[in-house]
Write a structure and sequence with these properties.
- The structure is a single chain.
- By secondary structure, this protein is α/β, with parallel strands linked by helices.
- The protein is 50% helix and 15% strand.
- The chain contains 12 helices and 8 strands.
- The chain has an 8-stranded parallel barrel with strand order 1-2-3-4-5-6-7-8, surrounded by 4 helices.
- The longest helix has 25 residues, at 3-27.
- The two termini are 36 Å apart.
């Protein structure tokens, strides 16, 4: 073997080693969040919660986003179970159910009532606070003032929370820019929040048949458009909400698994910081199956 061939082979070896290490790091990146949403009822049902904890740990799910609406002893006790199992607790607070009216959104007393829940969740050990329905009703006429008013509320919360991370849920339509009806603007919100959680559900994009058949493209394109608003230099974290079913169309078991898998791969390919899976009835067996199969494939 001559000297040139030896140098070439050494370079190839180090290049292969570098690529392998990068690939491994991407697959095992601990900062890539995998979460599931739970209602307060599910959290307080200890047998169901233990089942979810067991399967979440086996599947690599590390975060539970849990509604907090009514303080209770069982809630406090079961949050402790999450801590014992090293599962992050993110408290989801519904600000204005179905979207707020102008009067609700400009009434500080309502903000304060919700903040009492936020404070209790922090005391219970919430690693982050997630504000949902932080928007105007979609029936409101478009106004450039809407996003500014919502931003004031978010900023008010962030100032009170200080070192506790604050997340806000936003509609998938915000990937196209400011939504003047509901008052959501990711570029504006990024000035004060720690993370945005775009709900990039394929079922929410029209035309419905196209996005149902192309869940990967829907999720990937939406997240990429959000990143484009920041010149692909995201100043905050982005955790995408994905869906485990499509309410417009029934799916076979195999189709459902493929639908979920496509969305997860799209989140990863888009370079988001993780995903939260949404199932309104908290049924996650299909998600667990997809994740466990991914472990086998990896």
């Amino acid at each position: 073997m001559n000297k040139k061939h030896l140098i070439f082979e050494v370079l190839c070896f180090f290049l292969l080693a570098f690529v392998s290490s990068v690939t491994f790091a991407a697959k095992s990146n601990p900062s890539h969040i995998k979460g599931i949403y739970l209602t307060q009822w599910t959290l307080e049902n200890t047998s169901v919660l233990n089942y979810l904890i067991k399967n979440a740990k086996a599947s690599g799910v590390d975060t539970f986003i849990v509604d907090y609406e009514i303080p209770s002893k069982r809630y406090r006790e079961n949050i402790a179970l999450l801590k014992e199992n090293n599962i992050k607790y993110v408290a989801r607070i519904i600000m204005f159910p179905d979207g707020g009216t102008p009067k609700q959104i400009t009434t500080p007393e309502i903000w304060q009532r919700k903040y009492s829940l936020v404070r209790q969740a922090v005391d219970l050990g919430a690693s982050s606070i997630q504000l949902d329905y932080i928007r105007y009703s979609s029936k409101q006429p478009a106004s450039s003032e809407h996003s500014k008013n919502i931003f004031k509320i978010i900023q008010w919360y962030k100032n009170k929370l200080q070192n506790v991370p604050l997340e806000v849920d936003v509609f998938g339509i915000t990937s196209l820019g400011e939504s003047k009806h509901i008052g959501q603007n990711v570029q504006l919100f990024a000035q004060t929040v720690d993370a945005i959680c775009p709900m990039v559900y394929p079922s929410h994009f029209v035309p419905f048949p196209h996005h149902f058949e192309h869940p990967y493209d829907t999720v990937y394109d939406s997240l990429s458009l959000i990143q484009k608003q920041f010149n692909h230099q995201m100043p905050i974290k982005m955790y995408a909400y994905i869906e485990l079913s499509n309410y417009h169309y029934p799916m076979s078991h195999a189709k459902t698994l493929a639908y979920i898998k496509a969305q997860i791969k799209a989140v990863e390919a888009a370079g988001a910081d993780g995903w939260y899976a949404w199932s309104p009835h908290n049924r996650y067996d299909n998600l667990f199956a997809v994740l466990q199969n991914q472990k086998i494939e990896d």
